[in-house]
Amino acid sequence: MDFRLSDEHEALRKTVEEFAREVVAPVAEHHDRTEEFPYDVVRQMGEMGLFGLPFPEDYGGMGGDFLALCLAIEELARADSSVAITLEGAVGLGSMPIYRFGSEQQKREWLPQLCRGEALAAFGLTEPGGGTDAGNPRTRAVLDGDEWVINGSKAFITNAGTDLTRLVTVLCRTGERADGRPELTSVLVPVPREGFRASRKYSKVGWHASDTRELVLEDCRVPAESVLGDRGRGYAQFLSTLDEGRVAISALAVGLAQACVDESVRYSREREAFGAPIGSYQGVAFRIADMQLRTHVARLAYYDAAARMAAGAPFKREAAMAKLYSSTIAVDNARDATQVFGGYGFMNEYPVARHWRDAKILEIGEGTSEVQRLLIARSLGLPV
Amino acid sequence: MNIVVCVKQVPDTWAEKKLSPDDKTVDRVGVDGVMNELDEYAVEEALRIKEALSAQGGGGEVTVLTMGPDKSVETIRKALSMGADKAVHLVDPALHGSDALATSYALSKALGTIEHDLVILGVESTDARMSVLPAMLAERLGASQLTFARKVEVGTGTVKIERQTDSGYDVVEAPIPAVVSVVEKINEPRYPSFKGIMAAKKKPLTTLTLADAGIEADNVGFAGSGTEVTDFAARPPKQAGQIVKDEGDGGSKLADFLAQQKFI
User: Fold this and answer.
1) N or C, which end of chain A is more exposed by having fewer CB within 10 Å?
2) Which of A62, A69, A91, A272 is the best residue to mutate to test the B interface, defined by the most B CB atoms within 10 Å of its own CB?
């Protein structure tokens, strides 16, 4: 057993680390303050091929795997979580369902432009009426001749309203199944489009530069062949998309946790109190040692889930554990890093303050911590 | 047109640089190695020249040449993943301790094994910072010397550069073969893509020893060097600054200070 990355994965990690340090970090505070979407950073990520990382070259991708995507997300999150979630949302939630479930024609039409980062896709799952209760959406799609007519609304949708957004996959109720449960179908909605509206950006606690919108669909019409994969497969599709996405969110959380360690180490070596660097006091040094320990364990957890995924082995429980643990310790590390920084940790211009605000959502998005515990408990055979 | 880019692995720009007390050479073991930053601009420029020529139907290859210990292969891989076609690694324990003079000799011999019209390299390395290698190399090769380029244009049988100067730039043109050193203003180096990283694995990498390149051992290493490091000391810690209190005469106190330091 060898937990080290392959030479290629390590080279990619280093490249993205360099990019994050040189390109992303210097403008992170600006984007956090202005809440502007980082178009210039996204363009350069597109040129590097980050949006095509896990897809075959045949569809314009880089021929890498999901671990490659996770490593890129982790390194970006060390500099700016907003940029990292922009990549995760675009690839994990936007492009991946097209690649996994789309028809050959849908893949040929969408993946090349999505892989170049010239177009962004979003995944419309959550609704204002419920996040965890995602299997019971109110958004309806009704066949009218050779068109679907969609009505409903979606909430907290990443990348849904940027100038680059060209596609939103919308989970719709398309009928009732024999067992009385709703028939759910994913429908591709190319945007902009009549009847589709992305409302103004939310005012969020963190992830300021990430584009998050509420979507409204009013008699929005798309051709009948816009169904992603088969009709009635929507529920299974989003469950599988979320399983993978959890590993990616775990990588993002690990990046944030590592950033908190990096910042704390640097600051506590420089900052002096009582005539010595604060890192020479055990109260600070041991706290940072614990932060590093948690980060390391969380990283191994997501490496393991990604390795199982790559090997085609079941990874649902491992993904849930990685997501639960890494998001928990990301919040812990962000809290501890702000404490190491003292009063400066409460100032928005310091990265640790941004990390502190960016961390909390990790315990909520892509399945809450409660959902992860439910999945782990059920995987153990508990009747919960 | 065939282009050779000389690259060097140097200690990470962010790491504390040290000399090894044993033989007074740069300690390359204890720190992460990275490609000398200015060489990244050289690789980028070579790739741009090749891409521009190939868009006009021209051919040619970009070869990376490095001299250094086994670990330097990381830097070779990076240049290959950026898009260079092949690489030559000059590696031999006898090269250890070579100064600029010996290095220029060794590189010129290695270049003798590679077909080339143009040699491009960074204007200096961030570890030694001598900035003499391009000139020495041109002299040894009997090639045109075009240094401090902030812009390179390849013509028919000639190369024209804008040579960065303190006050602006000079336009210099010379026949091929030529050695061109580049400054960081010249371009924005690309980041390797994952496809490039994967492709780099399969690109040809030739390893040369002294004998392979026809290098005489007496002319390289400590013995073949024209300079010798006799002693070194750690940089002294930063002195505390001087605080000038403005009691109505702050301006003249500052002027006195600047005059003392011979700035004015």
Assistant:
1) N
2) A62
Of A230, A248, A280, the residue that ends a domain is: A230
ipTM: 0.81
Residue A366 a catalytic site member: yes
Report B:201-220 residues touching A (Cβ under 8 A): 201
Q: Is A18 on the interface with B (CB under 8 A)?
A: yes
In chain B, pLDDT over 90 holds for what percent of residues? 74
B81-111: pLDDT as tens digits: 999 999 999 999 999 999 999 999 999 999 9
The model carries a pTM of: 0.89
Q: Is A219 left (phi over 0), alpha (psi -120 to 50) or beta?
A: left
Last residue of a domain, one of A78, A101, A120: A120
Does B197 contact A47 at a Cβ distance shorter than 8 Å? no
The reply to whether A8 touches chain B by the CB within 8 Å rule is yes
Residue B192 near chain A (CB below 8 Å): yes
By the 8 A CB rule, do A340 and A284 touch? yes
Q: Are residues A199 and A220 in the same domain?
A: yes
Q: Tens digit of pLDDT for each residue in A259-272?
A: 999 999 999 999 99
- Which pair of tokens denotes residue B240? 């505390």
What one-character-per-residue DSSP string does A213-279 give?
EEEEEEEEEEEGGGBSSSTT-HHHHHHHHHHHHHHHHHHHHHHHHHHHHHHHHHHHHH-EETTEEGG
Chain A residue numbers touching B198 (CB-CB < 8 A):
8, 62-64
For residues A111 and A131, membership in a common domain is answered with no
| Domain span holding position A77 | 7-120
A164 in the same domain as A40:
no
Residues A108 and A138 in one domain: no
